Amino acid sequence: MIRIDNICRTYGSGETQVKALSNISLTIEENEFVAVMGTSGSGKSTLMSILGCLDTPTSGEYLLSGESVKDIDDIALSKIRNTKIGFIFQSFHLLPRLTALHNVILPLRYTDVPQEEAEQRGMEMLEKVGLASRSHHKPNEMSGGQRQRVAIARALVNYPKVIFADEPTGNLDSKTSVDIMNLLTDLHSQGQTIVMVTHEEDIAAYALRTIRMQDGVVIEDKLCTKQ
Ligand SMILES: Nc1ncnc2c1ncn2[C@@H]1O[C@H](COP(=O)(O)OP(=O)(O)OP(=O)(O)O)[C@@H](O)[C@H]1O
Ligand SMILES: [Mg+2]
Predict the structure, then answer these.
(1) 9 falls within a domain
(2) Which of 40, 44, 49, 83 has the fewest CB atoms found within 10 Å of its own CB?
(3) What domain range includes position 98?
(4) How far is ligand 1, taken at its centre, from the CA of residue 43, in Å?
């Protein structure tokens, strides 16, 4: 479903140039659950930005469900983002003035889904993450774990092919982290493809494959054995 070939990403130029990714090639199949690990600065977020079409590589090829993400303009890129990809971030990225429901349906604003259907779908997603009763609450009236669940509902509202999560439990205590990982595990067992960055081994253990990065290259790519 995802295929990248010889991806490089360089920031800046001249003496201050940083090579964040060097010749990364990998494939991710439908319904995989992948953890990306590595020390700070190893290129994890850069890789996620490229896979999530938030950024384009300096060189290399990227195919997302058969479509080449090369030489396409920002409008086409945002269309791919809007229809195929869901995002979850460490700091939730919710809009403080909007209710949970309105945060969830935000990605549908620039699509042709009518408002009523959008709200119906939004409620369905809030139900899925166990927050239907909080649909009219604003982010500051919710706990960290609840905020992240709203963000997960928002990531799901487009029925994305793949969800990218950059340290989804990075701002949560360990008990809440387990709740969020159980939710992601449920979504995976329902067929969702998930790629997640984490620093923590016990969080990575929920995934079925671990990719380890160091200095912009993949140093290990391993399937986990689980019973
Ligand atoms: N916008 C930018 N401009 C210049 N350099 C950048 C930029 N973003 C990232 N870098 C550099 O690219 C390298 C990879 O950064 P990246 O954010 O991908 O690392 P990371 O693995 O996500 O780290 P962390 O675990 O701290 O989040 C680092 O050396 C970083 O300083
Ligand atoms: Mg990062």
Answers:
(1) no
(2) 40
(3) 28-56+82-223
(4) 6
